[in-house]
Design a protein that fits this description.
This protein is α+β, with helices and mostly antiparallel strands. It contains three helices and ten strands. Strand 2 and strand 3 form a beta hairpin.
């Protein structure tokens, strides 16, 4: 019963299976997370589609040219995606404790008082908060 984990799983599975587009049920928090993924270069784009319910976020996944010839010469831009804070176990950090994902190669998504931010933005502003997920 964790809609954020469900959305991250849809994106992770779509990326690993070579899909170009995945659809996830929309919410403000999911839209902010996907927007950070776009800013950081992990996805191509996303689009909010209105329906008569909550709406749909259509996420266009990004792929890079691979050196090997497997998967038609492409590998996903998202190598890993992990949910950190869950409804049963919330994980909070201060501004000094903000983690570096893979020594700075990945990003942590943080829900702070200023909104949903990447770890880089949270360090610049100087705020901590709840760690939603890691992406690399």
């Amino acid at each position: 019963m964790d809609p954020i984990a469900d959305a991250l799983t849809i994106i992770r599975n779509g990326s690993k299976n070579g899909k170009r587009v995945v659809n996830i049920p929309a919410s403000y928090l999911k839209e902010r997370i996907v927007d950070i993924f776009k800013k950081e270069g992990y996805i191509e784009d996303y689009q909010f589609i209105k329906d008569n319910k909550q709406g749909i976020l259509r996420v266009y996944l990004k792929y890079k040219r691979a050196k090997s010839t497997s998967r038609k010469g492409e590998k996903p831009a998202i190598m890993g995606l992990k949910r950190i804070s869950r409804p049963g176990r919330r994980v909070y950090v201060t501004k000094e404790q903000i983690p570096y994902v893979l020594d700075g190669l990945g990003r942590a998504i943080i829900s702070a008082s200023q909104g949903v931010l990447s770890d880089k933005e949270a360090r610049e502003i100087g705020v901590g908060g709840e760690i939603i997920c890691y992406i690399w």
